[in-house]
Specification:
By secondary structure, the protein is of the alpha+beta class. It has 20 helices and 33 strands. Helix 8 packs across helix 16 and helix 13 packs parallel to helix 14. The chain is globular. Bound molecules: zinc ion (2 copies). One zinc ion binds next to helix 3.
Length: about 650
């Protein structure tokens, strides 16, 4: 009897050898129809691969990420086949599946590929796919493989690095490629394909190597799914924070200031300030204290923290002074400064936890090719905080940090997220710093806190940092894209390196545990994601322009100014539209600019000391006193979310 264990732990028995497809058939016809790939004992295989011993089997459909991977990997073969039919002198290199689709790196040998060639490739791919060929894997000797690719230096290099006996070719239709497997049952299920882009890429990503053309594509089992995907891509382009950020006047870059160093324009600065205030208020409720540290620190500080050893060579180089040998570094992290803040005073166990918060600006040298709008920059501000507590306080502190993160996500409209718990590799415990006992405490604290707060979690063993376990939040935006935002990290390393201690109730010195946490991650990255998630239509409380006052003629300009000032005094910000235009047009323009409130002032309003209020999407709210409007506004303009576990 052959035992097959399925992911839910159930075991099915078979007379003899079996294929994943037969396993699927033994469960249901529907499942068999939809199974396009499988993972057998941890390795992705074809559905026809014979299983001869007891195994674990996971059946994959298009709805599984690994199923899509097989689908897109197989589509890359179809792309390579089509390319070779049109460009017989092209040299193929590698063609993997990626998060959305696949690519193939090709040396076209001086025949450039342009957008007008995409359509003929797409047609050819579908024409070939229709033949419904299977993918047939066969083992070849190294000598045979090298002979086959004698005129392709790229494949030759790949083959030379493979051990003899582990080299396989795969053939579908009339086309053969070097490949280790993991295909869909046949090409016929590829029903829609789009070539998205062709861009330069260096062989093996090294700019000393020859430049190749990376042809990107994506494919689907249904035409409708391709259409939906392309629509989503268009929407993502419309929402690109680099485009919207400029249109909305939020931020700018200047070559004179330097690449990757964002400039916050007044509206962007206002938005950022509101976010900082929002988080500061919540942090105050949770007992955080605010600290301030300088933008540079002596090199020695980062030698002590270990950052110099780890990142020094690849980052901004030390700042020299007229004093020989004196060196400072632009701050790459706030943590070392906060350790020294902790150390500036003596603490007893009764004083802990200490929770130091700072919107701390840090500088890291990203390669120019890596820079991307506000999401990858060289100077950015973390919504940083470091908590110093006793090992017994970890659980409670973790729960409170999770509360804070949930409050931030909830208030800002990120409802769909998962939390990744990163723990030690159980088989390799010696590579971690800190005692077993403390690690167990910390790991239990994270798992227990995540469970108590009802988080949707995935646990990854071996993903912890060497200095402590962590909890990372992955957020899905309005377009279903995944972003890593908040992070909470336990640290046993820095308290050791900085010799931090507190007096225990046994009157002995003890090491505190340190927690690093940043719910936003960084202000830059968070605002980029917020712009794309809301398409620039921010929640009222965050909007940098909350009203526009529309005087019906210039006679009421002074009254408009007076109203504006009254509102500004209550931190309600906006503008006055005193253009010589009809009020109707001004209202339409204000709606287009997504301004939440339109306040119309004329003779009646001035003599009654009132305003006529319109709200975007709701229409006329009638005439009211400025005070009544302020009260109404304040009710409306707050996050409709509660911070759990307030003190
Ligand atoms: Zn393949
Ligand atoms: Zn830190």
């Amino acid at each position: 009897m052959l035992k097959i264990t399925l992911p839910d732990g159930s075991i099915r028995e078979y007379e003899g050898a079996v294929t994943p497809l037969q396993v699927a058939q033994s469960i249901s016809d529907g499942l068999a129809r939809n199974t396009i790939s499988a993972i057998v004992n941890g390795k992705q295989t074809e559905v026809e691969t014979t299983i001869t011993e007891d195994s674990t089997v996971q059946l994959l459909t298009w709805n599984d990420d690994m199923g899509k991977k097989a689908f897109w990997h197989s589509s890359a073969h179809l792309l390579a086949q089509a390319i070779m039919e049109f460009y017989p002198n092209a040299k193929l290199t590698i063609g993997p599946a990626i998060a959305n689709g696949f690519y193939y790196d090709v040396d076209f040998g001086g025949e450039p590929l342009s957008e007008k060639d995409f359509e003929k490739l797409e047609k050819k791919i579908l024409e070939n796919a229709k033949k419904n060929s299977t993918f047939n894997l066969r083992e070849v000797s190294k000598a045979e493989a090298l002979k086959e690719y004698a005129d392709n230096p790229f494949k030759t290099e790949l083959i030379e690095n493979l051990p003899d006996g582990e080299i396989t070719f795969v053939t579908h239709d009339n086309f053969t490629d070097l490949c280790r497997g993991g295909h869909i049952p046949s090409t016929g299920i590829v029903k829609a394909v789009k070539i998205l882009n062709a861009a330069g890429a260096y062989w093996r990503g090294d700019e000393k190597n020859p430049q190749l053309t990376r042809v990107y594509g994506i494919s689907f089992p249904k035409q409708k799914e391709l259409a939906e995907y392309l629509e989503k891509l268009e929407e993502a382009k419309r929402r690109d924070h680099r485009k919207l950020g400029k249109e909305l006047g939020i931020f700018a870059f200047s070559e004179k200031v330097g690449a990757g160093l964002p400039l916050w324009l007044p509206k962007g600065a206002a938005l950022r300030k509101k976010l900082e205030n929002f988080l500061s208020e919540a942090q105050k409720k949770q007992g955080y204290e605010f600290v301030i540290s300088p933008h540079i620190g002596a090199k020695e500080l980062y030698v002590t923290s270990g950052h110099w050893d780890k990142y020094g060579a690849d980052s901004f180089q030390p700042i020299k002074t007229p004093n020989e040998g004196e060196e400072f570094l632009l701050k790459p992290m706030n943590c070392p400064h906060h350790c020294e803040i902790y150390k500036a005073q003596q603490w007893s166990y009764k004083d802990l936890p200490k929770r130091y918060a700072e919107f701390g600006t840090v500088y890291r040298y990203e390669q120019s090719g890596e820079l991307h709008g506000l999401t990858r920059v060289r100077g950015f501000t973390q919504d940083d905080a470091h908590l110093f507590c006793t090992p017994d306080q970890l659980l409670q502190e973790f729960e409170k940090v999770i509360d804070l993160v949930l409050y931030v996500f909830g208030s800002l409209g990120f409802a769909d997220f998962t939390a990744q718990i990163s723990l030690r590799d159980p088989d390799n415990r010696e590579k971690y710093i800190g005692s077993d006992e403390n690690w167990e405490k910390a790991e239990n604290a994270i798992v227990t806190a995540a469970k108590a707060k009802g988080l949707k979690t995935v646990t990854e063993y071996g993903e912890a940092a060497f200095y402590g376990p962590k909890l990372d939040f992955m957020v899905k935006d309005a377009l279903g894209r995944s972003w890593q935002l908040g992070t909470i990290q336990v640290d046993y390393n820095l308290p050791e390196r900085f010799d931090l201690w507190y007096n225990g109730n046994d009157n002995e010195k003890h090491r505190p545990v340190m927690i690093h946490r940043a719910p936003f991650g960084s202000m830059e990255r968070f605002i980029a994601i917020l712009i794309e998630n809301t398409a620039g239509d921010f929640p009222l409380w965050l909007s940098p322009e909350q009203f526009t006052i529309l005087p019906i003629s210039e006679k009421y300009a002074d009254y408009a100014k007076k109203v504006s000032q009254l509102l500004e005094n209550h931190d309600i910000c906006g503008l006055i539209d005193d253009r010589n235009e009809k009020t109707g047009k001004k209202i339409r323009d204000a709606e287009l600019k997504k301004l939440p409130f339109m306040l119309i002032v004329g003779e009646n309003e001035e003599s009654n000391g009132t305003i006529s209020v319109r709200r975007r999407g709701e229409g006329d709210l009638g005439e009211m006193s400025v005070d009544a409007f302020i009260t109404y506004f304040k009710q409306q303009a707050k996050p409709d979310f509660e911070l759990g576990g307030n003190q």
